[in-house]
Amino acid sequence: MSEIFSKRFDYVILGGGSAGCTLANRLSADGRGEVALIEAGKDYPPGSEPADIRSSYALGAAFNPAYHWSDLKVRLSHNPTNEPDRRTPRFMEQARVVGGGSSINAQMANRGAPLDYDEWESLGARGWGWDDVLPYFRKLETDQDIDDDYHGKDGPIPVRRVPEPEWTDFSRAVSQALTDDGLKPLPDQNGFFEDGWFACAISNKDEQRASAAMGFLDAEARKRPNLHIVSETTVERLISEGKRVTGAHVRQRGKTHEVRGNRIVVSSGALHTPPLLMRSGVGPAGDLRDLGIDVVADRPGVGANLNEHPTLAVSAYLSNGARLRTPDRRHAHIAFRYSSGVADCGPGDMYVSVTAKSGWHPVGIRLGSFLMWCNKPYSRGRLRLASADPAAEPDVDFNMLSDRRDYDRLTQGLRRMAGYFDHPTLRRIARDPFPSAYSERVKRIGAVTTKNRVLTTILAAILDLPGPVRRSAIRNLITMGDTLRDLLGDEKRMEEYVRGNVTGCWHPSGTCRMGAADDPMAVADPSGAVYGVEGLTVCDASIFPCVPRANTNIPTIMCAEKISDALLAEAAA
Hints:
This protein is of the alpha/beta class and 573 residues long. The chain is built from 19 helices and 23 strands.
């Protein structure tokens, strides 16, 4: 491995997540450019992936601490008072493994709406309108169900939908309730951009995950002599010579090395790309000087504009026949989007994923859920550098619900979800609905451990007891006293609950956004090149001008496809 640190590469990619895997494949494909991909987590070559990563059921991998950055903590909700900010930072799962989030996420192949990308262009990301990005969405996928002008047939990521005969009774009952409520069934969430319910498009083939690592770093790609994958190696800071970035200091097995390249591409994700830039002197000049960091480029937008989809859920106890019992099969068969009607929020501004299994453990098997989020959020947070020490995680504040529109839509959505559980087809199979939150207590018991398996087995047995016992267990052991009736009947209690329990969808983005050259808060130009320095590109969800109406994995791969083309065109010029 030492020869890696004595070479000079054409491209050094820092971060092996969805964007990094895509870039590594496309930039090495012609065999001419030497490409190094550096990743802090483990690499699992084809066929060696652990069972929970391969699994079609995503939540085992999602909450396995083996694949996480172990010290990352964030603040979530906005503090609406003038009192001192007492919000306690809480752990946030962020992937540390080749493939990044695509190796542990929910496998949702959601593009977002044309409106999202036209908005990107209006915000200064010229050339990123819907007509510009659609070819790259098509390029990345092989759609196994639909053959039309919206979909690709020869891309590295297989996309499919779970057929209706394989749905649980819970999924079927929800589809009936939604239809009765006036939402129409859509044949394709990524080709018909209107309100309705649909079978979820998923990055999955033959009941196995299809991550960016599996799709872009397959056995054939790994045979390329010009592609070098360096795992379990952390990036400390970039190396600059004047205004040109020429490499990075990386740490492997306790030793620091230099890796050099003609073009350095940072693809470390929306929460880790900004601190790497700031540690390297690219960011808000005043903040950097306060930490003793020499300023290479004053870019105040680094770490600003933090986007996320604020999320809440409503769950219910499922009757025995309505549950998903096969461990490794899909748990989310359908989803729906709707327009809230709240002023200035636009169409399709709310999204709900319907899950027939709400956790990997015995309690999760018994719960069906509506996981609801603001598909078009307006609150913005910020990320700051806490220390110049490369081992220190950043100070992350999502500031969710700081824009009242986000709060109003979540409370409206809770009422709507409670109404669905009152539909006759759902009442027969889904009992005792309750507000469900990803609290610290739920987070602890959601970690994949033997202890948690034992505890949830005991609680599951209690939930199977007659109704009064089950309702008491839900109130005293799961919701800690909160009931839907209490929340829906008391605005003050509703606000306390929503602000205290809102979480995100693991969709952080926007912290190094693209924009026009005359925009002081823009970090990168529309090719991903960072303003104020040479030789440095950013390519991951941090460059989104705003988060699209979508899970962020497929849009991130799309961005990497497009920026790969821009880098290759630059090299050929």
